[in-house]
Structures are given as C-alpha cells and as structure tokens.
Design goal:
211 residues, mainly alpha, 6 helices, 77% helix
C-alpha cells in the first residue's frame, strides 16, 4: 500500500525518495566509483613515490652531515694536537683575520712600490724628452702632455690589475684562506700547501670555481 501523503509526516520520519532518483544515484555511483578509485590510487602512488624521494634526500643529507661531523672532529683533534705541540692557543677566526690583514698590507706595499717605480720611470722619460732639441721632438708639447697623461692613466690601471692578481687567490676566496691557515698552523711554506693536502683540495677548489 502507498503511504498516506494527505497528512504531514510524523517527526523523525522521512519518506523514501522516488524510485527513479534512487536508481539514478545507484547507477552514478556504479559508473563513477571505479574512476574515482583509480584516481585515488594514482594519487596515493604518487604520494608514496614523493615520500620515497624525500626519504632518500633526507638519508643523503644525513650521510653528508655525518661525514662533515667526522671531518670536523678530525680537524678539531688536529688543531688540539698542534696546540699541545706548539703550546699555543689557536683561534681560527683570529688567524683568518690576521691573514686578511697581512695580505691587504702586502698588497698596499706592492702598489706603493709599483707607483714609485712608475713615477721614477715617467720622470726619467720626461727628462729625456726635455733634453732633446725642440726640432727633433716630432710632436708639440701639448701632444706630449696628452700622451703622457694617457700613458699615466693606463699604467695606473695596470698597477691596480697587477695588485689584484698578485695573490694566488682573492681575499674572499675560502681556498686561499684555508691554504694560508694550513700554512700558519703546520709551519709549512705557503707554496707547499697543495702538496700536503693532495688532489682532494684541488678537486674541492675546482668545484667552487665551477659553482
């Protein structure tokens, strides 16, 4: 028998939906469920793959961190040995600061020497030209002054270039700082540090240059 729809439904009673609505919903679920399930599986697999990649990256980073920690422990032990051997208190930051100050002072002295040589050479050239007969100069005095000013400017640029290239590395180079640090701590001459550290230090420097 059909339900009596003449009176309002009792509280808590919900009449069943029409039959064609129910069949449509069932059919929709039946057709879309496999597609949704497949998409969910793909999403889960992609998520698992991403987790595996992240775990691999974390494992790699952990391994690198462990290697760095070991190297730091070895370096600390070597510094302690040097301190006990030489009876010195060795401060890395102070040593690096001292190295930078030393290189800067050497660079300034180098520039001063070049400038003194430059001034002496130019003065000698001017005296030589002034000693020549006027008709043999071949140029007016104004042309010679312009030429002298241009040569002076070019030589100043050359002095600065030579000063910048005088050191094996620049002040900001970690490789140069550590070479100097190794030289100071071990007592080895600076030009023999590469022989001490071996190919490993050279490959590290090559990697820094490529970066």
């Amino acid at each position: 028998p059909l339900p009596d729809r003449s009176s309002p439904p009792a509280p808590g009673f919900f009449p069943p939906p029409p039959l064609h609505f129910t069949e449509t919903a069932i059919e929709a679920v039946r057709t879309t469920a496999p597609h949704v399930d497949g998409k969910l599986r793909e999403l889960a697999e992609a998520y698992d793959a991403e987790l595996k990649l992240k775990k691999r990256d974390i494992d790699t980073a952990a391994g690198l961190l462990a290697d760095i920690s070991k190297e730091l422990e070895l370096t600390t032990a070597r510094v302690a040995v040097l301190q006990s051997r030489n009876g010195l208190s060795f401060d890395l930051d102070h040593a690096l600061h001292t190295v930078e100050a030393l290189l800067e002072s050497q660079k300034l002295l180098f520039v001063e020497r070049l400038q003194r040589c430059q001034a002496s050479d130019l003065a000698a050239a001017v005296r030589a030209h002034e000693a020549l007969p006027r008709d043999s100069l071949g140029h007016s005095l104004d042309e010679l002054k312009d030429l002298l000013a241009r040569i002076t400017k070019e030589r100043n640029s050359l002095v600065q270039l030579i000063a910048d290239k005088a050191a094996p590395q620049t002040l900001d180079s970690p490789c140069w700082k550590y070479r100097r640090l190794i030289s100071l701590s071990s007592g080895a001459p600076f030009d023999q540090v590469d022989d001490l550290v071996g190919p490993m230090g050279q490959s590290v420097e090559a990697g820094m240059i490529d970066d």
